[in-house]
Each structure stands twice: as C-alpha cells, then as structure tokens.
Amino acid sequence: MKRNWRNHLATIISIVLGLLIIYFGTDGLHAFTAESARTYRLMQEQPAFPEVTLEDSKERVYTLSEFEGKYVFLTFIYTACTDVCPVLELNLKEVYDQLPEKYIGEEIVFLSVSFDPDRDDPETLETYRIAFGSDGETWRMARIPDKEELQALLEEFGVIVIPDGNGGFAHNSAFYFVDREGYLIEVMDYQQTEKAAEKVLQVLESELEG
Amino acid sequence: MKSLLLGICMIIVLALPPMRELLESVMIVHMLVQLPLLIIFGWIIGKYLLQRFPGFFANWNGNGIPGIIIVIFVTTYWMIPRAVDEALTYPAVELFKFISLPIVGILLADSWKKILLIGRSFVFLNYLSMFGLMAWLYIDAPIQICNNYLVAEQKALGWGFVIITAAMVLFTLQYVFIDHSENLPSE
Amino acid sequence: MSKDIAYHYEDKSRNKLVAAYLLTGGLVIGLMMVFGILMLLNQGGILNLSPATFYQFLTIHGTGMIGAAALAAAGLMWYFLGQYVQLSKKIFVWNLVLFIIAVVMVIVGIFSFEYASAWTFLYPLPALSANAWGTIGALLYLVGMLVLGTGFLLLYIDTGRAIIRKYGSLTKGLGWDILFGKKDVKDAPPKAVIASTMVTIVNTTAIIAGAIVLIMNIINVINPSFTFDPLLAKNLTYAFGHVFANAIIYMAVIVVYELLPKYANRPWGVSKLFLVAWTCSTIFTLVIYTHHMLMDPVMPRWMLIMGQVLSYANGLPVLVVTAYGALMVVYKSGIKWDMASRLAYLSMFGWVIGVVPAIIDATIVVNHVMHNTKWVPGHFHMYMGVGAVVMLFSFMYYLAKVDSDVQDTMLDKIGFFCYAIAMFSISIQFLVSGAISTPRRWATHFPEWMGPAQFGAIAGVFAVIGTLIFVIHFIRYMKNRGTAGSDMYEKKLA
C-alpha cells in the first residue's frame, strides 16, 4: 500500500482532471454542440442589436429605432432556401398565432431578416411574405443591403452562414428575442414553438403587470 | 532520442497552417486522420520518454489506471461535436488539441501494456460501442451538429465510424475464434 | 500440504463472495415480488394506486427482477466456472460493487424522481414523458443501467479471457474442435465451461448493444433536438434486453449440470449432440430478439419470419438435451432427494412447460393478437419464476450443503411447496388473463379482468413466504459457513 501511494494519488487526480475537462468543455454539461454553446453564451452576454439599415418587402427603409420600445422576435433566413427556412417561418407563424392579438404590433413585432441581400430584393421578399401569410406590418420581412452591417449583426448574434457552393447556404437556426432596448435576451429552439410562445408571453405579462 | 525528435517534428508539421488547413477543411479527415495522427506521434514520443524516465512512470502510473483514465476523458472530450467545432473557431481550443492529444499518445504508450488483457479488452469494447454510437449519431441526426461543417460531411464522417466499428468487430471475432493455445497472452 | 491449505483458504473466501451475490439476488427478488403483489392488487381493484405510482412499480419490478436474477446467476456461474478456469476475484468484487451503485441510482431515479418508463426504456420514452418525470430521473435510471452493464461487461471479459487462456478460443470453449472431429468427445470441456462460453458470447454482445442505446437515450434526454431512428433504437434495446434476460437461465442451468451427477453419483458426459445444442442456442439467442418486433410492420419481413422460426428453435436444443440428460442421470440412480435436488428438478419442469406459451406467442398470427396481453408476462413468469429463479434457489441450498453443516428443515420443505404452487398459480393467472384478452402494462382493469389479478396477488403472498424461507436458510448457512470442512466436500453428497 505504501509503495504505490503515488499511483493512487495519480488515479484520483486523473479522475478530477478528466471531469474538469468534460465539465468546462460543455459549460457545465449544458452544451454539447457548438450551437448550444453559442446560444448559452449569447444568453449570458445579451449583446445589443447593432446599428443596421433594413429594407423591407414594402421597400421601406429604416433602422431598428422603427421598433423602439417594442420587443422584436426575429429569425434569419434566405428565400432560396429549400430545407430549414420554410420550417423556420412556419414555426415563427405558429408562435405569432399563439400570442394574444392585443400584444401583436403593440408590444411585440415579428421580423424575418434575410442574409442573402443580393437575391432577396423587396420584390422577392414580398412573394415570400404572401406565401407565408405575414401581414408585412406586425410581421415584416427585410434584408440588410449593406453587407458590412449584415456581417456585424450576424457576428453579434452568432449566426453562422456558410455558402454551400450551389447558391445555397448552410446556417444555424433559432428564434431570437430582443427586448425594448434592443438587447438580445433569449435564443430559443425553433422546433419548440409552444415553449417559445410561452416564454414570450411570460416576459410580456410579467412586465405589463409589474 | 530519434523517436523524440521524429514525434516532435511530425507534430510541428501537423501544426503548420497549410497542413492544418488541409486536414481540417474536411470533417472526416479532421476527426479520423488529424486527431489519430496526433495520438500516434504522441505514442512515438512516449516510447522515448518511457526509456528516459522509467521511474516517473513506474511511480505515478504503476498500474496504468491513471493514464488510461486521462486517455478516456480526453478522447471523450474530442468526441463531443462541439470540441471539433470550436477547435476551428477558437485558437485556445486548437492549441489544447495539439497538446492534449500527444499527451494521450504518451500515456497510452505507457498504460496500454500495464492495464493487462482485461483492461485492454474493456477499453477496446467500450470504444467499439462508442464508435458505433458516433456512427449512428452523425448519420442519423436530422440537425446540423457542427456549425463549421455541412450535413453531408457529417454523414460521411458517420460512415467513417461505421467502417471503424465494423473493423473492430471483425478484429474481436477473429481474436476470440482463433486459437491462442500456442502463444498464450503474457500475464 | 501447505498448498492444500492455501487452496482451502482461497476457496472459503470465494464462497463468501458467491454467497454475497446470491444473498443480494435473493433479497432483491423477494422485495420485487412485493411490488408485483401491489400491482396485482391494484389491477384487482383492491388497492387504489395512482397510475403514476403503478408505472413506477412496474419499472422497479422489471428492472429489479432482471438485474437481481442476472446477478445471482452470474454468481452461480462464477462459482462453477471457477473450478475449471482461473477467474479474477477482484473483478468479481467490482461487479458486485457496481451493481449496488446501479441499484441505488435506479431506486433514487424511480422513487425520488418518479422515473417510470418500464425496464425496457424504449426510446424516446425516457425523454418524452409529458412531464411525468424530469431529466434527472431519466438520467439516474439510464446511467444506473450503464453502470450495471459496465460491471457485467468486466465480468464477462474476465470469463472470456479465462476460457480462452485455458481452452485456446471461445469456439473451443463451445467444443467446436470436437464437432469438427479434431478432438475426441471425451476431451470436451466440462458443461459448466460450455454454458459459460455461450453466456460470455451473447452477453458481451448484448451489453455492447445496450451501451449504444443507453448513451443514445442519455444524449436525447440531455438534448432533445438530437433525435435518432426509433426502429433502430428498438432493435438495439431488445438485442440488449432480450438477450440479457434470456442468458439468465443459461447461467443458472449450470447448477443442474453440476448438482445432479454428484447427487446421483453417476457421470453426465458431454455428447456431440450436447455441443450442437449449445452452439445452436448461442446463435439463436443472438438473433431471435426480433420476435419482440413482430408488431412493427416496417421491419424487414425476412427478419420477422426469422424471428418466428428461430424462436421455436431457440430454447429447444439446450432444453431438450438438458431435460433428457437430467432424466437419464437420475433414472433409477437411487438419488437422495433434498431441497437442492428437488428445486433443480422443479426448475427443469418449469423450463419445459414455460417454453410452451412462449412458442405460442412467437407465432406471428398469434403474436398480433396476444403480444399486448398478459399472456406474455404469463410466459416469462413461468420461465423465470418456475425455471431460472428456482435454479438459483437450488444453488443456494447446494452451497449451504457443501459448505456448512446447516440442515434442511421441515420449514424448508413447506417453503418449497409454498413457492412452487404459488409461482405456478401466478403464471397461470397471467395466462388466463391473456386468454381473456386482458391488456398488459395497464394500471387499471375492467371488473371482468379483475378476478385473475386478485388470485395472483394472493398467490404472490405465498411466493414471498417461500422466498423468505429460502433466504433465511441461506442466511443461516452464511453464519455457519465453512463448518462442513473440505474433506466433507464431496462425501456429504453421497
């Protein structure tokens, strides 16, 4: 026993060290993919929505101050997308429909931002808007014509967009929830619309009551 | 001494930016070529260190268990999809990769002999099931697991794991079916 | 001389460990019976448990029974195999320690965190419980099962290693060199080695499949957006669960092989037919889990048909050679009947009749109607309760006999009849329920389904009493361990 105390000590140290690697490598077992790590980090940091100029499907041009004092619920898409974006938009609509009408447009605005400004001109966005049944007012579709501004926003919100070489993009998808002051407060799983709606409602109601 | 230099040189070659670019741009090469190579060169360095400092390894890794525990944890960490992803995004994680995996190789060179047949079989069978799971995960996952790689690359990696798992199964089968009466394992 | 003493000492400490396995197994089995009774009382309308509680009981009952029976059977196998090959005591201890850790995790998961997806933990149920239980409960259960599997994997690696070391390879452990005519049948490995080889092969495979599906479930529980193919998950789950549960009887049957020849004072040689039977059962056991999937029309048709055909064939080869051999050994031998031999014989009887309902259920046409009824629990209560578990009890009495001077009493005899009749009644009750189309796994029953359940609950009480008597006898042995003396070891039996 005396002879191999070092071995026992080393065993214990290696277990502790190993657990620490796994623990810190996953933000305390919270995030096993870069995507979940990203959302986890975003919610810790709560970055501000950077200064960008939007151009929507009705060819109106404005900055985020257009929505000042309102919550913004947004997604990032491109209209030529054939896989996840339509689902993302349908799910956004589900959240939209689950919220009481009195809040829509008054307290909260929905926004779909295209990261493919070259192809998604207002005309294309208009077609897309009609296809998904958005009203263009309380749920707007817009592009950011200035590429530098677009890049800044994507970076700030941790949206990763990789061109796949065939005119499409691989990108990560989520719901983004921005508060009245323009700070990102929540990133939500776009596949769990009920949970997302519940969360939004909870934030709105707790604030209006309080 | 020669093996030390060889190992270190090869790791430096792997760390050169064009080499990294080459190996890391494709997911399956990143996971199944670069990472194993780092371990192998660690092993080569380990051969030298074992001769140079036998006392240290005998004292602190006498039965091989501490070493193999580190090996298991570090390789598990590198099987988490996020780790590979972040190696591309954060230099610190990339650096950790180039340090931790050669260490895995060094420890493996020492521990693999010491943990006896039973320990080797246990570790081997666990990696067999783990690789099977990775295959399933990467082929079957409907979502993009890594932000830096496309879904198609993910699937290719999954099939890579299928091949590894199949090879391990075949190895096991031949091991238990082929007669060992002549050359009994030394224990 | 000194070598003899050392061997004797070694032998004693080994018996102590084996006894710890059997005692743990026996106690857990007795406790799990209580949960079984509570469930039957609930289905019989006598108790009024909430459905959530019922499913928690269902989960602990299934998990506990399979786990405890497998543990005790592993102890039995280790005892006999250890007489032919050099096994590691350290690993044997580790398996027990890991088993106990696993049991604690599973119990906490089920009762403190209300986890209740049954012992089959079919994906995606662990993660999708409609808030009946949370992530922690599911994780405790799944990780607990993983810990349990780790212990058993270590044990089977050790048995495999030891068999390969002594006999050259696992195929030689199964006696293939004799089948291919390279060796004479009288040089065949002992029956205990053949059975252990078979179990080593099938259970190592099962545990690897189980590890994959368990970790996959864990990933899914932690992060629900990782989803997997449910059909593949189901295949792996049963490749693990069916094989692991099935292997219990192949470990336990070793006691029949070792005990009867000693009692009858006659050799029970290995024949070629015996080797063929064990090889067949090794292969069949690995592939017939598909009979659990007969109701999944998406499964490839050939797999289902294979499941049906091979299910017929699965248990039969080993069962036939064992039952026939057992009869031949005992026939006109003037065997002394005591608790151990009586239980061994009962177990053979239970195994033979337990196969009948199983074969009926494995028929595809019948399966579609019957598989979701209580017919199925009827089959496995007979097979396990009157077959495999009785072998374990038989071994408990055998060990007490060869390693102590504790005698069987009248009480033990009462226990035997108590248990035999009770367990048989419970099985019949399930089969009758199945025949009147009572669904399985339902917390509450219509009045017309309640009769058999009430009957079963009462029978269950007697089964618990019988088990208690067996366990008490075994505890008495453990207190007087080693009093038989090594020279008495074989003499006492004659």
TrEMBL record, chain A:
Record carries keyword Repeat: no
Swiss-Prot/TrEMBL keywords: Copper, Disulfide bond, Metal-binding
Disulfide topology: C81-C85
Chain sites annotated for binding Cu cation: C81, C85, H171
Key word Cell inner membrane present: no
Signal peptide per UniProt: none
Domain of life: Bacteria
One Pfam family per UniProt: SCO1-SenC
Domain Thioredoxin: 43-209
MF (Gene Ontology): metal ion binding
Family to which this protein belongs: Belongs to the SCO1/2 family.
PANTHER family: ELECTRON TRANSPORT PROTIN SCO1/SENC FAMILY MEMBER, LINALOOL DEHYDRATASE_ISOMERASE DOMAIN-CONTAINING PROTEIN
Protein name as catalogued: Thioredoxin domain-containing protein
Organism of derivation: Compostibacillus humi
UniProtKB/TrEMBL annotation, chain B:
Regions crossing the membrane: 31-50, 62-80, 121-139, 159-178
Superkingdom of source: Bacteria
Keywords, sorted A to Z: Membrane, Transmembrane, Transmembrane helix
Transmembrane helix is among the record's keywords: yes
Name of the featured protein: DUF1404 domain-containing protein
From TrEMBL, chain C:
Membrane-traversing stretches: 20-41, 53-80, 92-113, 133-157, 192-219, 239-260, 272-289, 309-331, 343-360, 380-400, 416-436, 456-475
Protein name: Cytochrome c oxidase subunit I
InterPro entries per the UniProt record, alphabetical: Cyt_c_oxase-like_su1_dom (IPR023616), Cyt_c_oxase-like_su1_sf (IPR036927), Cyt_C_Oxase_1 (IPR000883)
A GO molecular function held by the record: heme binding
Keyword Transmembrane helix: yes
PANTHER family linked: CYTOCHROME C OXIDASE SUBUNIT 1
Alphabetized Pfam families for the sequence: COX1
Record domain Cytochrome oxidase subunit I profile: where: 1-494
Alphabetized UniProt keyword annotations: Electron transport, Membrane, Respiratory chain, Transmembrane, Transmembrane helix, Transport
Gene source species: Compostibacillus humi
One of the protein's GO biological processes: aerobic respiration
Annotated GO CC locations: membrane
